[in-house]
């Protein structure tokens, strides 16, 4: 099965419209061996009637079955009414042989941001249930699901991208296709292939790129291949073979045990649960006995001395080695100086052959994080320098969306940071924002977020918790440990390839 994936044609009625790129691609599609075509939105530029009239004419040039999804530009000026009139339903289902495309309208009138609202979310879940026996399940929407590189400031991701991502993974969706940022990109997120089309025919490409479309091939054995094809003829392909089976039994001795903590928010406020934190520290010291405890930030609720003093008392009780990176709460008021005074500037730490690389992402007086271009470059260099080691990147802010939390601007350069991490093949990333435990593997890198260990204002149905991550020679397993009860539940289990590439094998932990 071969699918042509076009997007962001931004058709206008003016002569400035880059119709030649569109014609070239439409021609290739007509002459190519494609079963159908998906257009992931921004068909028109302003959602105007004359644009829809022109778009109807242009879309007819494609002589293959065509699925068209609305984009934020299509719904401008109440264009969603015209979309239904000229093009078709805003949400729908397209069935093919042993597969299905479920498309969902992710637009919000007059905003560039995206959302799959609660009714549509239920509708999507119902469709995924209905078609759960199909071999290939494709979900299509306009907005991207995972932060993209080269987009400037990362924004306009779906507000509830974490929930949508979680839903797609639960229902074993094979492919998510989208457009919107005019950047062609392919990521493997667990067994889901996230296929972003670039810009098929408008002038607004990024970083001097040219127009392009993606070619998706679904193989009988379950492999999914996405080929980015630019109008210059240049092609880049990526193929994913689903991992089966998904559960592994560890072989060999455990190499490292990490306890990952976040958002303790030590304070005198009622939301800080002192007893829960004390209990968790007892569980860590007496039962779990990790090699290292990593705190992913928001140690205190506010950057004042009294809170730092208390937090220091708590963390002094932890017997294992500690690595603490600041969150945005930690550097409010005098926090920037207090953090260094009490916990020291986080630096590179090597334990049992594992290299922990802390990254500072918090800024003064805002929950929005940034690594920055210089920070990205430094991180890339460190990942290169420690390529032969097992690298763990530690930071506060999220680089992948977290269920139950709103995904707007949490890390403004998340897309570029995620690229640095995947290219550098970091072996693990630990984050701690969003108040919910979550773990997914993007490309070769598991990314694990910790919920809140002792702050009442969290988003975790499991309650206050922290993560326990065990690394074995061939696999890694992450559990979430309930902070009060000490019970655990699986967050993720990942096969890893030869984690320790260094000639001298690391000392196994007792
Ligand atoms: Fe667009
Ligand atoms: Fe868009």
TrEMBL record:
Domain annotation Calcineurin-like phosphoesterase: ranges: 1-184, 274-433
Asked if the record carries the keyword Hydrolase, the reply is yes
- Name the InterPro entries for this protein: Calcineurin-like_PHP, CNP_phosphodiesterase-III, Metallo-depent_PP-like
Keywords associated with the record: Hydrolase, Iron, Metal-binding
GO MF:
hydrolase activity; metal ion binding
UniProt family annotation: Belongs to the cyclic nucleotide phosphodiesterase class-III family.
Classification via PANTHER family: CYCLIC NUCLEOTIDE PHOSPHODIESTERASE CBUA0032-RELATED, PHOSPHOHYDROLASE
Q: What is this protein called?
A: Phosphohydrolase
> From which source organism is this entry?
Thermococcus celer Vu 13 = JCM 8558
